[in-house]
Amino acid sequence: MTMKYFQTISLICQAFVFKFGLDATIVPCEAADGSNVAIIGAGLSGLTSAWFLQKKGYNVTVFEKNSRVGGQILSEVIDGGLGAADLSKGGDCSKGNGNPSELGAVVFFENSGIKDLATELDVPHSPYHSSGLHRTMVKSGRSFGIVIFALLKLTPIILLIELLLFSRILEKYPEIDTPGLFDHDSDLYLPINEFALKNGFHGLAEIITKSFLVPYGYAYFTTMPAAYWFKALQGFSFGFTPCTEDFFYVFPCGFQSFLETVADHISTVHLGVEIMDINRYPNGTIEVVGDDGSTGFFDQIVIASGLNAVSSIMDVSEEEQDLFSRIKTFNYLTSYVKGNFEKDNPLATPLPIAYAFEPNSVEERIDHVNLIFTSSSGSTAVWQILDKDTTVEEATDIMKQDLLQCASMKDTVVQRQELWQNYFPTVSSEDLSDGFQDRVESLQGTRNTYYLDPSLSFHLTYNVFKFAEDLVERKFVNITHA
Fold first, then answer.
1. Of the options 2.40.30.30, 1.10.3720.10, 3.40.640.10, 3.30.70.1990, the CATH number for the domain spanning 328-425
2. Among 30, 38, 142, 422, which lies 20 to 30 A Cα-Cα from 366?
3. Domain 147-239 adopts which CATH fold?
4. At 290, which helix (H) or strand (E)?
5. Which of the four pLDDT bands, split at 50, 70 and 90, describes residue 350?
């Protein structure tokens, strides 16, 4: 595939490559005016940065190895599946692409910035139909709303005291409300269980973690650094502002439809092109080589794909290699299944309800079901955090056993599965304490290279969008010509 670039100098480079063959010695071209930016990855972070860079006047080229945009956001029509339109309050899909189900991200926060961009681009979105219909299932198979569940764990007086102590954290640590994790107090790098114990809200923190964060694939109470934990709650206004009825939003045509629309407004997006080599030359020019034999030359580059694997395609420094090797990830399995609930089973409800399996919210129960989403159609969405060595077949067997024992679902048949590898990238409390975030921040812009990765903020759509927007705002000057 021949790439179209905006500067004549890049066209000359390509002509040289194709004339003398890909094995020829390529002399890097002089960087132009810094306006040509390559972005590796067409997920939420890559396309968000592309959008805001383009608004600042940059010529943006996005490369994506998959044949679609979205990254870990994927919407597909599944026969009888719980569709995005089913989750919306009064919303429908006018694009004629059915009622797609979400295999990746499902909702976004009203205050995330995503809603504003969706409005600007006229992408259909609507409030989440079942805001608040999230229940926690305990070992007996009974389930409770979050307030009742909290009162089962803590006395009303203790719960009130812990809420008050929790509310003081924002005043003590104002850096919590920033998009990234750099320049944070060292206490915030403690595991959340230690931080919460030190600050007097251990019981409350455990309830929030096991009811919300672990079920959606975000680490465990004993290992998640407090800084990540608080980033996860940013979109909730830390629970201090009561959630309005329209606090959560969905895309009736699927979350992926939003990113497809964003991509349609980006000047150049190459799909199905896996990057094989990134060379950063001393004069500042950056060469990007695709697996289709195409070569492009750019002034700057944004890495919006997994940093823990970037050393396989880019000439990284010792500092970059050391930092990126510290990033750890999970595997996360999304399944859509059909089965038969026993008669009068409370899970067989006409409304979509999320059930978090609280007993499985500990590391010892990895591979077991963390969350299910029921629907009146009979299709159930299931999520599981997996060990790196667990196969999909093994996880499916465990899932069927859990659904039978904990949810009384029989005759389970799998409709669709998606295994998300390299899910929820983070670094440990020890690495944060050793300066990981500040060291990465000091690298931003070095050798004309910038990094976007959930390990630098948090792996929620709110945080990914905000961090990408903030990076462009902080690091790239406005070059829009009047």
1. 3.30.70.1990
2. 142
3. Guanine Nucleotide Dissociation Inhibitor; domain 1 (1.10.405)
4. strand 286-290
5. low
| 251 neighbors 257 (Cβ within 8 angstroms) | yes
* Nearest alpha-carbon partner for 217 in 341, 386, 407, 411: 386
Question: What is the rounded average pLDDT of the residues 174-178?
Answer: 87
pTM over 0.85: yes
Helix (H, G, I), strand (E, B) or coil at 390: coil
Q: What is the pLDDT of residue 348?
A: 64
In angstroms, the CA 210 to CA 218 distance is: 10
**Contact between residue 315 and residue 370 where contact means Cβ atoms under 8 Å apart:** no
Instruction: List all residues 6 or more positions away from 259 whose beta carbon is below 8 Å from its beta carbon.
Output: 42, 43, 44, 47, 69, 70, 73
What is the band of 130 on the pLDDT scale with cuts at 50, 70, 90? Answer: low
In angstroms, the CA 364 to CA 359 distance is: 10
**How far is residue 46's CA from residue 86's CA, in Å, rounded to a whole number?**
29
Nearest C-alpha neighbor of 181 from the set 449, 445, 425: 425
Q: Number of C-alpha atoms within 13 angstroms, CB side, residue 109?
A: 18
- 3-state secondary structure at position 7: coil
Cα separation values, 362 from 151, 223, 469, Å:
20, 10, 34
Lowest mean per-residue pLDDT among 211-220, 230-239, 280-289: 230-239
